[in-house]
Amino acid sequence: MFFTTRPKALLVVFVASLVLLLIQKSSAHSYADCIDWRFTNPKNPSWSDKNGACFGYARRFPIKAKPFAKLDSDGPNRHYQQSHKNPDPNHSLPCSDGKEGEEPGADETMGIPISAAYNGKDKRGRIIGVQTTSKPGGELCIRWPAKNHAVPNEKNQPVVIALSEVNPKKDPTQLEFLDNIIAKLDYKNCTDKGENTDIWPCGGCFKLPSSLKPGNFVMQWLKNDAVICDKIIRDRSTLGMIGRLLA
Ligand SMILES: *[C@@H]1O[C@H](CO)[C@@H](O)[C@H](O)[C@H]1NC(C)=O
Ligand SMILES: *[C@@H]1O[C@H](CO)[C@@H](O)[C@H](O)[C@H]1NC(C)=O
């Protein structure tokens, strides 16, 4: 076992820093908002809050911090852009550590134990979402806000879903993630398209490989600016662990 048991209270040690409140982002980047979205009525599948609910989140995702689609202008923001100075996806940090990248933001580092990233509160004292639980071959529907990237004149770049091996001791490198892509989703699969194109809810559904062994996995949600393994990956964000896959 590489994870020691520590009291849940540990997370609370990181008291909210007032500095964070001063950061205001004006960028419009998408991010994975929900990892396990379930439609209330499968006959009316819609990504709107009115027509479904979320049952699993990315690491340290503050669930009630802001209305849908507004966490890219939060402090810290929820999206993660790999450094543009070294736009090499193979050697970029795969998960935001809150410090590196083009616009430092959310802390997506692995929790110790893993469950610590899904329990309690974030550094600003906001309640964070639970870990996603599924099973080998199970279907997951992931949701994201369109921001300004689902309008007709934007190129439709796929959302790429990549997976780690079972029970990784640390997060995969970006190259390892790109080596295990399990799904490509239509970024512009949005519903409830109102006047404000930034807040269109979008999402995609896919099946997990049925060959998975039960355990913990890290899953990455990735939106490219270019084709896979080409030079630049810009808007991206990681998903957290999928917990306890049931055989
Ligand atoms: C597109 O979104 C709908 C919900 O409106 C969902 O049922 C469907 O599975 C999505 N399509 C894909 C390919 O993910
Ligand atoms: C990243 O790795 C892949 C697979 O090894 C390789 O094909 C690609 O050229 C690499 N990309 C860069 C920018 O080095």
From TrEMBL:
Entry superkingdom: Eukaryota
Range of residues in the leader sequence: 1-28
Swiss-Prot/TrEMBL keywords: Signal
Keyword Signal among record annotations: yes
Annotated stretches, region: Disordered: 72-112
Name under which the protein is recorded: Uncharacterized protein
